């Protein structure tokens, strides 16, 4: 899963770009790690002035390498940031409806953020460290081997062993990291839950209770992170100790084998110093690589990345000669639940308004969702009296407005409608209580009205969307629940006026509204 995801990110950035970046990193680090050689050469007594100037210039270039690497890395990281999020977003938007209804938005948002962050960090600490360490080990092994082949190999053996020990220690840390990630997502979810229930919380005076809950979650998070950090710190400390011991052994053996000629001793000491300084971070950096890989693995699994819904055969059949939307022997049950429908046969006349009535829990909303294609029935067929997929509009019970202008909300998705026409409809449905000016319509988002959009006004905006988009099928789920008597009469008049040919199925609970419908279908409890 992680491999597939990272491969996708790499492909989007482009393999030639990545190869070029790696070559640049390799050369830049080679120049940087030449410093022990340049310093040793500078201290040689017999050098000409020209040689000294050249060496000083080379040293200056070498010292510039780290900032140069960092600035190139930055533009690379921004590409990783964009594509890692883009791939996750594509994976999420292609999920079936049940994914969105089952997974809390806080979780999805938190994991997308976390995986893409880990991906960026992985690039920085992963790719960067691998190239940096490889260049250093290759260069210094060669430089030491030129002086004494045994010391060169001893260096390579000791420092490779050190890296292997670091890797082994990092692996032990895996599970803790996954746990820390989960507790971080809990905090995020809690904040979103608090925000969406703010009215209930304030009305029931339960701020203290909520604070205690949050304290508990924060404490859990703190403890898990402390645990992870403690293991990481202990591992780094041990590795730092190990590297110093190894360097001491090489120094003693090196001086014995290479000799104590001034420039050779200086070169050996400098190489070891550079190795310690750069490699001492290796343990932590490797732990970070492991941590980021774990974060990506855990986040992808929570987001169900790569897990696509088994493609059911569509239950829809199109027949342009048919006169009704027909449910034929439809059976449907939610996951591990009792059947909502068993061999259901129902018909809704094309071009007519049908009220769907019945007691709570008989499956009225489920029926509409089957018609939208959100859910696939386990068996049966739905005949649609059209040549191909008709234009459909669905207003669920809990429909929300987009955080976009009211105009964009009414004309969704992208209907090209003149402002004057929309204003006429606004007047007709009495939405002038909210929309006074063109700015109210085209510039203000629902949030800009400072929560002053009432439930009824929201329903009016959503209803205007149905009028403007002129769909062939309209599915309404208790769309008048927040409207007053007068507005209810107006909206039914508007339906007759603007949507005379649409096939409308509307869940209705109020008996008084049934008079506006051509047909009534009653769903009964078995
Ligand atoms: N997402 C879901 N997962 C599992 N069960 C569900 C889900 N949605 C609805 N149900 C169950 O399916 C049955 C039918 O629910 P549905 O919402 O379709 O009924 P309804 O007739 O629209 O009810 P109401 O009049 O209360 O809105 C109920 O028993 C409900 O608990």
Please provide a written account of the structure.
The chain has 526 residues and is of the alpha/beta class. The protein has two domains: 77-302, ABC transporter transmembrane region fold; 351-374 and 390-522, Rossmann fold (3-Layer(aba) Sandwich). The chain is 63% helix and 10% strand. The protein has helices at 2-13, 15-32, 35-42, 49-93, 97-102, 105-147, 149-171, 174-196, 198-203, 207-258, 262-279, 282-302, 364-372, 406-410, 419-428, 438-442, 455-469, 485-498, and strands spanning 316-318, 324-333, 339-349, 353-357, 379-384, 392-395, 473-477, 503-507, 519-522. Strands 6-7-8-4-9 form a five-stranded parallel sheet, sandwiched between helices. The chain has a four-stranded mixed sheet with strand order 1-5-2-3, with no helix packed on it. Strand 7 (473-477), helix 18 (485-498) and strand 8 (503-507) form a beta-alpha-beta unit. The longest helix has 52 residues, at 207-258. The mean pLDDT is 86. Adenosine-5'-triphosphate binds next to helix 13. This is ABC transporter ATP-binding protein. InterPro entries: AAA+_ATPase, ABC1_TM_dom, ABC1_TM_sf, ABC_transporter-like_ATP-bd, ABC_transporter-like_CS, P-loop_NTPase, Type_1_exporter. Pfam families: ABC_membrane, ABC_tran.
Report strand %: 5-15%
Number of helices: 18
Number of strands: 9
Q: What is the CATH level 1 assignment of the largest domain? A: Mainly Alpha
Architecture of the largest domain, according to CATH?
Answer: Up-down Bundle
Query: Helical percent range?
Result: 55-70%
| Ligand list | adenosine-5'-triphosphate
Largest sheet: 5 strands, parallel
CATH superfamily descriptor of the largest domain: ABC transporter type 1, transmembrane domain
CATH topology of the largest domain: ABC transporter transmembrane region fold
Rg (CA only): 34 Å
Estimate the mean pLDDT confidence.
Answer: 86
């Amino acid at each position: 899963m992680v491999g597939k995801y990272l491969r996708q990110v790499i492909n989007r950035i482009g393999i030639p770009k990545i190869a070029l970046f790696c070559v640049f990193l390799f050369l830049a680090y080679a120049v940087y790690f030449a410093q022990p050689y340049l310093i040793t050469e500078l201290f040689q007594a017999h050098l000409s002035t020209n040689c000294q100037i050249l060496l000083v210039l080379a040293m200056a270039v070498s010292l510039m390498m780290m900032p140069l690497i960092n600035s190139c890395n930055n533009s690379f990281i921004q590409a990783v940031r964009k594509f890692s999020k883009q791939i996750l977003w594509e994976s999420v938007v292609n999920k079936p409806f049940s994914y969105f209804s089952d997974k809390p938005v806080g979780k999805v948002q938190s994991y997308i953020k976390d995986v893409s962050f880990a991906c960026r960090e992985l690039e920085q600490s992963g790719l960067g460290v691998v190239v940096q360490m490889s260049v250093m080990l290759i260069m210094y092994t060669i430089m030491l081997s030129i002086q004494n082949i045994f010391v060169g190999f001893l260096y390579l053996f000791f420092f490779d062993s050190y890296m292997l020990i670091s890797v082994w220690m990092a692996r032990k840390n895996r599970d803790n990291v996954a746990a820390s990630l989960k507790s971080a997502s809990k905090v995020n979810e809690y904040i979103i839950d608090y925000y969406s229930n703010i009215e209930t919380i304030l009305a029931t005076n339960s701020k203290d209770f909520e604070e205690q809950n949050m304290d508990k979650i924060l404490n859990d998070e703190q403890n898990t992170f402390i645990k992870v950090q403690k293991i990481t710190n202990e591992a780094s400390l041990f590795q730092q100790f190990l590297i110093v011991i190894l360097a001491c052994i090489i120094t003693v053996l090196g001086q014995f084998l290479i000799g104590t000629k001034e420039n050779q001793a200086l070169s050996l000491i400098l190489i070891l110093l550079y190795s310690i300084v750069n490699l001492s971070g290796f343990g932590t950096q490797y732990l970070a690589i492991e941590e980021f890989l774990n974060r990506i693995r855990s986040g992808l699994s929570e987001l169900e990345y790569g897990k696509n819904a088994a493609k059911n055969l569509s239950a829809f059949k199109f027949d342009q000669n048919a006169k009704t939307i027909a449910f034929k022997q439809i059976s449907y049950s939610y996951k591990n639940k009792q059947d909502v429908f068993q061999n259901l046969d129902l018909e809704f006349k094309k071009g007519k308004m049908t009220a769907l009535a019945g007691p709570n829990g008989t499956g009225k909303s489920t029926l509409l969702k089957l018609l939208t294609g959100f859910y696939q029935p386990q068996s049966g067929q739905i005949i649609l009296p059209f040549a191909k997929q008709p234009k459909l509009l669905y207003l669920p019970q809990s429909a929300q407005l987009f955080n976009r202008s009211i105009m964009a909300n009414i004309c969704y998705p992208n209907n090209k409608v003149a402002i004057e026409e929309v204003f006429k409809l606004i007047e007709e449905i009495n939405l002038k209580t909210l929309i006074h000016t063109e700015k109210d319509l085209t510039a203000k988002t629902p949030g800009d009205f400072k929560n002053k959009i009432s439930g009824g006004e929201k329903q009016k905006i959503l209803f205007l969307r149905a009028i403007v988009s002129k769909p062939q099928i309209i599915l309404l789920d208790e769309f008048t629940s927040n409207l007053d008597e007068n507005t209810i009469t107006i909206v039914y008049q508007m339906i007759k006026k603007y949507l005379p040919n649409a096939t409308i199925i509307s869940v209705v609970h109020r008996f008084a509204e049934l008079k506006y419908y051509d047909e009534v279908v009653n769903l009964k409890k078995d």
